[in-house]
User: Which sequence fits this backbone?
């Protein structure tokens, strides 16, 4: 055995074939972590707040009577807790994140730095407007980018996420229809739509009418035309659609709904495939939300916050919600009161307190200025190119239901290639975890069986794509050859094995409770 | 372009593999009438970090940052000191750049902090269960009203006149579609008689405490009156730090609590993103909107967490879902929960006490100015004073002196004539003695 001068062995030794369970339960860099409530103690704090004597209380006799029950921890304990938790998460920064329809692209750090400038982050929404002209200018600049990229004349900035934007768009449509003295209560939604579309339509008081898909993954334009009538308020289409395909008959469908007196709401979740190349206005769109957290790369943050500004056609612009940002020739004004508006403007209401996701606006504008119109176009093209590269490289071993022609920014596969192998889409996806990848979107869209929707985005190098393709090819070949070992019970190498979701739903435990309190029964 | 890894050679090789002559061929389904060139957009081209940073910094410098002046603005968003550890931790890649935890085996970090967040929110509000956040306090309130309409199968929502007007408008926006929304008259500085408005069509009564003027409301009598008619009481809290000192709504009979969590960890951000807190009774669980993280075990028997009860949600239930919400406020939840973990019981209690003491002292000082009258007999860290002239002009004059001296009530309720002279003032631990001195002196000057 090689020794160094201190006598310490420097050779690697032999690897154990079977991993011994550890005494601590931790495994090297993988630490188990208790709940914060199991770690804390009374009388400890991580923030030094001065002890204040209250001479007189003005709480109206409603002072809290009992303790809250929060644990006490010092700063180092808190930091260690969250750092350990963070290490149990997959992230774009650590690997390819091919979640179709979710657009997990790189999040530039300049965006984070800009959003934290005190002039944006430390400004109150109700400060006098003359003290926030820079912030209003930022919003106005972002509005310019969004309207020019889409070719639409107006944009409502307050919606806080994509689904909130959908609601905003449908409420504008509802207001426009009511202003015409009409009643239209039906919205046509394709079977391939995101779940938010029908949920939003119902929330906005409409009846959802489903339009089937054709065998080639498009919305059935003929079936859609047949459903149009004087009670149809709008069609709600995603384009490119959730199968990753551009709707070739989009213009025809838009014209048809317009002719029938309805509106075209476009789900803009997939705008990142066409931004800088195609303007939604030219497709006949009346309203479309833009997920700033997808196309313009504000970080997903484990599930938000997002932002969902809605661009509006000239026919819908008068109904945009409060507040409105206008330029009076002198300075920018945020109009928060209906009475301050001219008679041509008829806002349908207010989506939320204040005026939108400023922290997302500053990040998105930073992204846009960095990329420029040319960079945004290139990003869209690279996203589409990368998805097609994956489709072309995998369709001989996996089954691509619509693989004949090109796709847009995501490549859709189904589970046909796994038939008879005993391996399911779920097994295949979970086995990717052991290979170091986040799974693709699975079982969505609903129009194909066992869907696997892969969106690589423009952020991957060719080497990264090639490695990913290699792994998926080998996995597909093994599954087809009946070598199912790595799929059974996968993942084996993640912080957790498969979790029992059925048990979680049957007897929900939704919060920590001290041991002596019973957990809630159903 | 620094963010795009593909080289021209890569692109050419990839096109060869695809068998397409050019990228344009991949866009073949786009109608030719909709194909535009680069010049169609009239937007600038790529810029380097330095140039972009210069542009954004110039815009930022044109705003009066709260931390640079004596600052007393509240009315739904509050300035608190956020410990440095919070921003450091939320910028860890594994939190910042992960998606909604749909693959629990590799998202335990997010799922566990959401579970802890739900527990903290339930404890603070005195409720049994809480969800993993909604967008903000106003949309949480709107969701609460929709939920009450589902639970009671009734249509009418009664909103207290002390509810933040932006919240009331947000509720009207969705709850009036399939129901009726009644707004009680505005009664600055005192409680209105809500009981007389409740009838057998009433699904819920919505009361904010402390209310938009800062007044602490006693929820118990309203809860009794509401329950007597088979309706639900929705309690709204816009300043979450108040729960460190005030009896929680859950202990006063509230059925749903909708709150703004911005005051912990999140910051002002010119209005967003914030974090909506939503808590309720166990028996209404299946009618709740939003995501839930629940405890379970994995195949090896280890404790773990998953998103659960998703049959309530849009991706499963589509048009029958309890809400259309998908993306919520994940990273803001994280900021909130870290800040609260750092504070703990003792830190939060002390922080709340400091806030109340600061506001009490300031209220005392301001009401000693000639013509200024304190109209909120009880309050937490925000109160309302009546001035001898319209408050909007006073606030502008103070801003000229580089003092951000509160929110004129007329900005929130321009048509309430009686609110014209009212100024809503917030003081937190960030309002120093010197700031309060400057404010009192400035206000006296402006009024003299």
Assistant:
């Amino acid at each position: 055995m090689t020794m160094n001068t201190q006598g310490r062995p420097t050779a690697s030794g032999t690897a154990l074939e079977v991993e011994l369970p550890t005494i601590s339960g931790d495994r090297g860099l993988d630490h188990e972590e208790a709940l914060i409530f199991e770690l804390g103690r009374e009388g400890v704090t991580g923030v030094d707040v001065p002890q204040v004597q209250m001479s007189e209380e003005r709480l109206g006799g409603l002072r809290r009577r009992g303790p809250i029950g929060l644990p006490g921890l010092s700063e180092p304990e808190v930091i260690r807790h969250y750092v350990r938790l963070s290490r149990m998460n997959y992230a774009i920064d650590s690997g390819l994140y091919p979640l179709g329809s979710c657009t997990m692209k790189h999040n530039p750090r300049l965006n984070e730095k800009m959003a934290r400038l005190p002039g944006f982050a430390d400004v109150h929404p109700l400060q006098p407007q003359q003290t926030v002209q820079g912030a209003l200018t930022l919003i106005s600049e972002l509005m310019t980018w969004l309207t020019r990229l889409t070719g639409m004349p107006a944009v409502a900035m307050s919606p806080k996420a994509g689904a909130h934007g959908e609601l905003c768009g449908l409420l504008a449509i509802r207001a426009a229809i009511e202003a015409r003295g009409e009643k239209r209560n039906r919205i046509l939604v394709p079977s391939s739509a995101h779940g938010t579309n029908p949920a939003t339509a119902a929330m906005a008081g409409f009846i959802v009418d489903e339009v089937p898909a054709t065998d080639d993954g498009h919305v059935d334009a003929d079936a859609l035309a047949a459903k149009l009538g004087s009670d149809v308020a709008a069609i709600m289409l995603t384009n490119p659609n959730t199968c990753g395909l551009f709707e070739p008959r989009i213009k025809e469908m838009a014209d048809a709904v317009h002719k029938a007196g309805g509106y075209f709401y476009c789900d803009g979740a997939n705008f990142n495939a066409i931004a800088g190349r195609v303007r939604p206005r030219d497709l006949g769109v009346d309203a479309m939300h833009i997920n700033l957290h997808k196309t313009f790369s504000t970080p997903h943050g484990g599930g938000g916050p997002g932002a969902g500004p809605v661009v509006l056609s000239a026919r819908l612009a008068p109904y945009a919600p409060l507040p409105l940002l206008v330029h009076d020739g002198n300075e920018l004004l945020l109009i928060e009161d209906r009475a301050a508006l001219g008679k041509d403007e008829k806002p349908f209401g207010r989506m939320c307190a204040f005026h939108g996701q400023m922290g997302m606006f500053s990040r998105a504008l930073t992204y846009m200025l960095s990329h420029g119109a040319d960079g945004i176009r290139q990003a869209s093209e690279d996203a589409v190119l990368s998805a097609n590269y994956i489709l072309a490289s995998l369709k001989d071993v996996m089954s691509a239901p619509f693989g004949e022609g090109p796709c847009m920014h995501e490549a859709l596969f189904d589970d046909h290639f796994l038939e008879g192998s005993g391996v399911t889409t779920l097994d295949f996806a979970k086995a990717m975890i052991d290979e170091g990848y986040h799974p693709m979107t699975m079982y969505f869209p609903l129009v194909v069986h066992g869907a696997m929707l892969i969106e690589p985005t423009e952020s991957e190098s060719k080497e990264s794509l090639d490695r990913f393709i290699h792994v998926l090819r080998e996995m597909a070949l093994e599954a087809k050859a009946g070598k199912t070992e790595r799929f059974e019970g996968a993942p084996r190498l993640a912080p957790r094995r498969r979790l029992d979701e059925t048990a979680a739903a049957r007897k929900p435990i939704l919060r920590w409770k001290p041991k002596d309190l019973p957990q809630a029964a159903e | 372009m620094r963010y795009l890894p593909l080289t021209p050679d890569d692109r050419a090789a990839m096109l060869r593999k695809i068998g397409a002559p050019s990228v344009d061929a991949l866009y073949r389904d786009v109608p030719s009438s909709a194909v535009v060139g680069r010049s169609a957009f009239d937007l600038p081209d790529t810029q380097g970090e330095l140039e972009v940073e210069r542009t954004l910094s110039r815009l930022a410098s044109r705003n009066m940052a709260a931390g640079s002046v004596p600052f007393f603005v509240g009315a739904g968003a509050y300035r608190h000191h956020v410990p440095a550890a919070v921003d450091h931790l939320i910028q860890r890649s594994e939190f910042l750049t992960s998606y909604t935890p749909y693959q629990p085996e590799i998202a335990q970090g997010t799922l566990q902090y959401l579970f802890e967040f739900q527990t903290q929110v339930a404890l603070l509000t005195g409720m049994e269960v809480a969800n993993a956040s909604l967008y903000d306090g106003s949309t949480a309130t709107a969701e609460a009203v929709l939920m009450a309409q589902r639970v009671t199968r009734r249509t009418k929502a009664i909103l207290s006149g002390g509810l933040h007007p932006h919240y009331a408008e947000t509720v009207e926006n969705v709850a009036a579609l399939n129901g009726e929304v009644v707004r009680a008259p505005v009664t600055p500085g005192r409680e209105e008689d809500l009981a007389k408005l409740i009838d057998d069509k009433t699904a819920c009564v919505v009361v904010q405490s402390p209310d938009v003027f800062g007044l602490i409301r006693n929820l118990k009598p309203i809860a009794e009156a509401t329950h007597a008619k088979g309706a639900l009481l929705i309690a709204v809290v816009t300043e979450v730090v108040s729960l460190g000192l005030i009896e929680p709504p859950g202990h006063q009979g509230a059925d749903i609590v909708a709150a703004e969590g911005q005051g912990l960890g999140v910051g002002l951000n010119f209005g967003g993103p914030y974090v909506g807190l939503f808590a309720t009774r166990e028996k209404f669980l299946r009618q709740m909107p939003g995501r839930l993280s629940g405890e379970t075990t994995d195949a090896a028997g280890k404790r773990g967490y998953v998103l659960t009860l998703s049959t309530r949600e849009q991706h499963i239930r589509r048009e029958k879902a309890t809400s259309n919400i998908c993306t919520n406020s994940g990273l803001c939840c994280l900021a909130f929960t870290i800040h609260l973990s750092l504070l703990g019981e003792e830190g939060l209690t002390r922080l709340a006490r400091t806030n109340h003491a600061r506001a009490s002292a300031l209220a005392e000082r301001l009401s000693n100015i000639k013509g200024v009258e304190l109209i909120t007999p009880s309050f937490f860290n925000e109160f309302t004073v009546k001035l001898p002239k319209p408050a909007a002009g006073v606030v502008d004059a103070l801003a000229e002196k580089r003092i951000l001296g509160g929110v004129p009530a007329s900005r929130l309720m321009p048509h309430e004539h009686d609110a014209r002279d009212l100024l809503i003032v917030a003081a937190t631990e960030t309002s120093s003695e010197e700031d309060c001195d400057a404010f009192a002196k400035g206000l006296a000057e402006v009024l003299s």
Notes: DSSP finds 13 helices and twelve strands in chain A.
